Every structure is written in C-alpha cells, then in structure tokens.
Amino acid sequence: MDQNEDDWLKDDVAGAEQAKQPPWNVLVVDDEPDIHQVTKLALANIDFLGRPLNIISSYTGAEALDILRQRNDIALILLDVVMESENAGLDLARTIREELQNHTVRIILRTGQPGVAPERQVIETYDINDYKAKTELTRDKLFTAVLGTLRSYNDIMTIEHQRSMLDANRRGLLKVIEASSTIFRQQSLLQFAQGVLEQLQALLFFEQEALYVVVQGGLTALTGHDGEIKVMYATGGYQPLCGQDLDNGELERFKDSIDQAIGQEHSIYAPDHFIGFFKSPHGPVNLLIIDGPVALSHPDTSLIELFCRNVSIAYENLMLSHEIEDTQRTIIYQLSEVIEHRSPDTGNHIHRMAEFSWLLAKALGLSDEEATIVRAASPLHDAGKVAIPDVVLNKPGPLTPEERKIMDRHAEIGYQIFKDARPRILKMAAMIAHEHHEQWNGHGYPQGLVGEAISLAGRIVALADVYDALSHARCYKKPWPQEEVLAAIRAGSGSQFDPAVVEAFFNVLPQIDEVRERFAENKPPQMDNPGQ
Length: 532
Hints:
Blueprint: H1 3-20, E1 24-29, H2 33-42, E2 47-48, E3 51-58, H3 61-70, E4 74-80, H4 88-98, E5 106-111, H5 119-125, E6 130-133, H6 139-184, H7 189-204, E7 209-216, E8 228-234, H8 255-264, E9 268-270, E10 273-279, E11 285-291, H9 298-340, H10 349-363, H11 368-377, H12 390-393, H13 401-418, H14 424-435, H15 456-471, H16 482-492, H17 499-507, H18 509-518
Parallel strand pairs: 1-3, 1-4, 4-5, 5-6
Antiparallel strand pairs: 2-3, 7-8, 7-11, 9-10, 10-11
C-alpha cells in the first residue's frame, strides 16, 4: 500500500467516524441567495468537537418559523434583520424566545443596513447572542463567531442534559418511595409479591415477563442442593407457575445468574435478563427475575438497589406483622374457647362464627384485609359472658326478666373489656361485642341503634350468631330444622337484620353449609389458613 492509498484509507475511516456523530444544525435565514452561497462556502469542511456543520437555508422569517416549529435540534441561527419587512428578523427573534419558548438556540443577527436597527438598541431589547454587520463578517470572523456560539450552545445543552437527568432521577426516586409505600400496605404474601413485580416494572418501564421467587434454605434447587424455589407471583407466560415449586428445567436459562446472585448476595444485570436479590434478616432469599433485554444506566442501577433494600424492609415487616397477627388470632381463639367452655353446649360455635363472618364480609364487598379482621375478631363477640354468673348463663330454660337483664349486660361488658385496646383486631372485637345484639329496626340492645348506625361488622355477626344459635342445640332449646332457620332469617330481613346482609347470606349459603359440615359438633376444628 503506497502513501496516497494509506492517506485515502485514513480519510475514509475519519469520514466514517464523523458520519456517526450528529451534525450541528445551522439555520441561515436571509432573503439574498448569494448570502446563503457565501455562508456555505465560508463554513465548508468545518467541524466542532468531531461533529460537522449542516447548513439549512430559509429565505423568509415565516419560512424559518415553520422550520423551527417542526424541529428543536437547531443549534445556531444566522438571522438577517431586513427581509420581507424591515423588522422581520427582529420579530422572528422575539417569536422564537416568547412564543416557541426556545431559549437554547443561539441567534446571531446579521444586517446589511446597521442604521435600520442600531446595535445597542437591538442587544438591549432582544434576546440574541451576537449582532454583526455583514460587511465585517469575513471568513475568519464568521468562523470565530460560529464556533464560539456553538461552544456556548454545547455548554447549555450539557447543563440541560444534566438537569433532565436529575429530574429523571428525582422522578425515579419518587417512584421508589411510591412503590415502597404501596408494598408496605400489602396484607398477604401474594399481594406483596404482585405489588413488588408491578412496581418494579413501572419503575423501569419494563414490558418483559417477570417472576417473584422465594428460595427456601438460601440455596438453589437448580444446583442440586436442598433449597427449594417457589414462585410467589409471575406475569406473562410465567403466570401458570404461580404458587408452584420449580424444578431444575423451568429456570435453567437463569441458573448461573441465580447461583451468582445467591452466592454473592447482590443483584445480577445480564444482557438478556435481570435478577434482583434481596434478603430480610430473618427470612429466605427473595429473587425478582425479569426476562428480557435490560439496559440500565448507573442512576437506574442505584434506584434498583434502593428499591430492593426497601422491598427487603417491607418483606421483613410483613413477616413480623403476620407473626404478630397469627399470635393474636391464636390468643383470641384460646380466650374465646375458655369463655365458650363455660357453656358446655357451644362446641365449635366460635369457629363457625369466624368463617360465617368471613364469607358474609366478602359477599358484601369488603376487602381481604377487612374481612380477615372481622373473622379474627368475631370469636370474641360473647366475651362479656365471662362476667355472667353460671346460674344465669347455663340455666336450662327461659330466663326471668331479672335474669334477662343480667344476661343482656354481656354486650356492654364485652365492649368495656376491649374498648381501650390498641390492636385493630381487638378494636373490632370491642365494636362487635357491643353491637351484635342490635337490630336493624332499632329494637335491639344495649344502645337501640337503627339501620346503618350499626357497624357493618356488627350487622354481619348479628346474623351469623342468630343463624348458628338456631341451628344448634343449647341448654335451653333443641336445634331448629334447617328450613325453619332459613325462614326465620328471611322473616327478619328489614326488621331484625340488615336486608343486604340477608341477601349476602343466601348468596353464600352453599359455602355456609360447607362450614357447618367442617365444624360440626362431633368434629375437631379444621382451621383455614388465617393469613390467606
């Protein structure tokens, strides 16, 4: 290869590299065609910071304005003052700044008639960057003016880019905080897992399929250890895996990244997937798997790490919350059983009551969280009976008016026991104990509340309690036949019971019958998972 060929090759490579860079767009606005030709010749073969100049011609202010409305990548305008009118250039400069709100493009005014628009007056009045007479713009001075102005434009755009990055990071941080607050409100592991995936995808604008998995034992089953991987929640094509334990084949493509994430205890950013790692101090390893191309900037990576740390805290709090509420439920059932055992014929009454209340609450549109609280609190509806003498509580026959007054006190006593409690389950228990003998028509006790003045939980438990009491034997009566019980419930709609609760009762009657069978008097309690 001779010297000329080598030079040509270098020129070709340099030209190819330059072609990769976007040009600096320079808009020449002048009504004289010769000015356009002279400007192009003067600025030919010039590049700044490795980027060439792209000269765009416009011959009127109106034409230039149309161009500027359609594109925002013009770096510099060489603008004539006098065109279709004496002030066409000045009017265009004002429109660019005030109407288009374009404060980044640099404007150099050029005029062949300096007396028409005096320089000092123009500089003071208009937001321009330079003002030159055409006669003084030699090739070298035009070169100096253009490059100096482009340097100013580049500095402005760098600052704007940094500001937009800060704004983007701020928005991302707000999304993290938003996501954390949403996740902290989740009340079940399924909801938690779903919330984590949804917020992560929203945070990074992912449209890829995703999985939330828990690795029990801290080791991955993919490597043949004794750990197990369970899918808590999944999106897209992975949805059928929800709630399943995975074997070696189903996540084989992610095997190395999963092992690396668990071994090194940090997230893995692979070209075609992302493994988010977090682990609470007392819980198992949790992994967020995003299937698909992942292109993250350094700020995005920092946001992900912050997100995973927040998720770890939320997961730990959720576990502690479940543990506390499980403990509360256990204590409540044990306390309720102690109270109910004072009446030898109540058996599985509290367990049936809890499940009846759950079914009715859900049928009436309460959320899982609200229905769970009602179910947990309902066993304490008769807690006030702990203060009722046995001679009254277990009397095998009708009560006298005086004995009835004593018995009726149990609603107020139950309320007094729990009214100052702080846990939400016990607060609900106080309300239920106080109101489960109120009637829709106001003829109940102890307060004589009418209609919706009775809490919904009180109305639910009122019907559930009557239904169960009529359906089972008591020391003072035999069980009623089912058809008579149902007839009594229908007859009480609008008087003793809330009509909406009665309607919900008959809508879930098949499930209620299943509960009666599951908690029949001759069977030990078979509790559902209280955390569901």
